[in-house]
UniProtKB/TrEMBL annotation:
Highest rank taxon of the organism: Eukaryota
Record GO biological process: cytokinin metabolic process
Entry keyword set: FAD, Flavoprotein, Glycoprotein, Oxidoreductase, Signal
Catalysed reaction, written as an equation: N(6)-dimethylallyladenine + A + H2O = 3-methyl-2-butenal + adenine + AH2
EC number(s) stated in the UniProt entry for this protein: 1.5.99.12
Pfam families xrefs: Cytokin-bind, FAD_binding_4
Protein name in the entry: cytokinin dehydrogenase
């Protein structure tokens, strides 16, 4: 009883502070809480580089709850911001707010279970649903979404607000290219259904819109028959030109005579060839970089990662299909590594690595990640200047590199990509560790990210950040280029008070005075863990 009275008192104080028109009992019904644990949880994210405490946290049970609360925020006399948060996997505080309320979309009791429409080949899911749970629900019907992210413990609304990419994107496009329909709560508190046919402006703006135009409460995702098994193959290259030529060839293939997933990564560390995402290269049979000719290539190797999906009924022909595709590639002949596993195990491969890192106390450390879209015409320059230059021979996490086809991306969405038919994702997915090695410290890795961006700028590469992070609106204008005018126009239409997703630092909420327009992020004390080894 005393706890409830204290909670009611705290909410009453919040009502006065921000000018809410809702009664305390109604706010409690909607799921508003100022519980210290909830507030603390919402103040940090996966990046662990900023910490910003919200005024309160909302745990809604329906889209109507979200709409009612956002409408109250929009109509409040003093004004406050509203930031949707899924599984908290942002890097630079994008889902944080120090001037309002975090809407915790992921969690038990939110939004209901995914509803699979088997005959129509789509699934309706709550915006806070994790992709791993979407997968499990769909597999019960023998179906699965077409396009994925490498890590499945991300929310549907979170990835659709960015793009959602993995090795299937070359063929199916990003996740935002596989959405039929959305329910969205705008910055005015309006709950709107949108698609290419219904409210298309909102539909295209929200997809890849960084949460600026609305909170996704439902998404209708396209499905396909789920394969049963995956043949997972890695081959190595010492020649970057041969590596990229083969990657670009593989993403040009169509029909059944292609791989189903094409990714790759860069190996700059000396010693064992390994990667965070699996124990693919057995430590009992170590492979040394020096044994594969990388010493003649600046100490750098490149790994092509490909898969072929299949059903047990077609297992007899899978070897022949793969052999025919591999014959056309120019990898190091002695470097073929193959494994076979269930489809769900392949999709959920990163989670196993997560559990391994957690067991070593190495998951909850700062993650100064940098994700770039690099034009095909500049990828060789990037290799020379970054992989063989800026990075040296040490890194602190995987470096992904793989190409995608621009024609699989809808230019009407808010996402910005390079203006070439083929462009590469280059993702520096590194962890800052307090193990005494300067090259693995947060300061060193952050400075190295700046060097990489400076190199790209001075070389005129016209790269675009994926999961972008900028501190000034002029930088955002440059990022969006010709899309900026439309982006700004959609903001004024759907979130005129600029109350949504203020942690992106794109627009300043209208209720903040000019003397108050500073970024709210506060550096978090970083407790880094001593590194044993990242050998999986």
């Amino acid at each position: 009883m005393a706890t409830k009275l204290l909670l009611t008192f705290a909410i009453c104080r919040l009502i006065v502070t921000v000018g809410l028109t809702l009664e305390p009992t109604e706010l409690l019904r909607l799921g508003l809480t100022v519980d210290p644990f909830d507030v603390e949880s919402a103040s940090a994210d996966f990046g662990l580089m900023t910490k910003v405490e919200p005024l309160a946290v909302l745990r809604p049970s329906s889209a109507k709850d979200v709409a009612q609360f956002v409408k109250a925020a929009y109509e409040s006399s003093h004004g406050f911001t509203v930031s949707a948060r899924g599984h908290g996997h942002s890097i630079n505080g994008q889902a944080q707010t120090g001037t309002g309320v975090v809407v915790q979309m992921s969690g038990v009791g939110s939004g209901g279970k995914p509803r699979v429409w088997g005959d129509d080949m789509y699934v309706d899911v709550w915006g806070g649903e994790l992709w791993i749970d979407v997968l499990k629900s769909c597999l019960a019907y023998g179906l699965a979404p077409k396009s994925w992210t490498d890590y499945l413990y991300l929310s549907v609304g979170g990835t659709l607000s960015n793009a959602g990419i993995s090795g299937q994107a070359f063929h199916h496009g990003p996740q935002i290219s596989n959405v039929h329909e959305l329910d969205v709560v705008t910055g005015k508190g309006e709950l709107m259904t949108c698609s290419k046919e219904q409210n298309p402006e909102l539909f295209h703006a929200v997809l890849g819109g960084l949460g600026q135009f609305g909170i996704i409460t439902r998404a209708r995702i396209s499905l396909e028959p789920a394969p049963q098994r995956v043949r997972w193959i890695r081959v190595l290259y010492s020649n970057f030109s041969a590596f990229t030529k083969d990657q670009e060839y593989l993403i040009s293939l169509h029909g059944n005579q292609k791989f189903d997933y094409v990714e790759g990564f860069v190996i700059v560390d000396e010693g064992l060839i390994n990667n965070w995402r699996s124990s693919f290269f057995s430590p009992r049979n170590p492979v040394k970089i020096s044994s594969l000719g990388s010493n003649n290539n600046g100490g750098v190797l490149y790994c092509l990662e490909i898969t072929k999906n299949y059903h047990e009924s077609t297992a007899e022909t899978i070897d022949q299909e793969i052999e025919a595709l591999l014959k056309k590639l120019n990898f190091i002949p002695t470097s073929v590594f193959t494994t076979d596993l269930p489809y769900v195990d392949f999709l959920d491969r990163v989670h196993k690595a997560e559990l391994k890192l957690r067991s070593k106390g190495m998951w909850e450390v700062p993650h100064p990640w940098l994700n770039l879209f690099v034009p095909k015409s500049k990828i060789a320059d990037f290799d020379r200047g970054v992989f063989k230059g800026i990075l040296g021979n040490k890194t602190s996490g995987p470096i992904l590199i793989y190409p995608m086809n621009k024609n699989k991306w809808d230019d009407k969405s808010s996402v910005v990509t390079p203006d070439e038919d083929v462009f590469y994702l280059v993702a520096f997915l590194r962890s800052a560790l307090d193990n005494g090695e300067e090259t693995q410290s947060l300061e060193y890795l952050t400075n190295q990210n700046r060097q990489i961006l400076k190199f790209c700028d001075e070389d005129g590469m016209k790269v675009k950040q994926y999961l972008p992070h900028y501190k000034t609106q002029s930088e955002w204008k440059e990022h969006y280029g010709s899309k900026w005018d439309r982006f700004q126009r959609m903001k004024m239409k759907f979130d005129p008070r600029h109350i949504l997703a203020s942690g992106q630092n794109i627009f300043t909420p209208t209720f903040l005075s000019s003397s108050n327009m500073m970024v709210m992020d506060i550096p978090i004390p970083i407790k880094q863990k001593a590194r044993e080894s990242i050998d999986f």
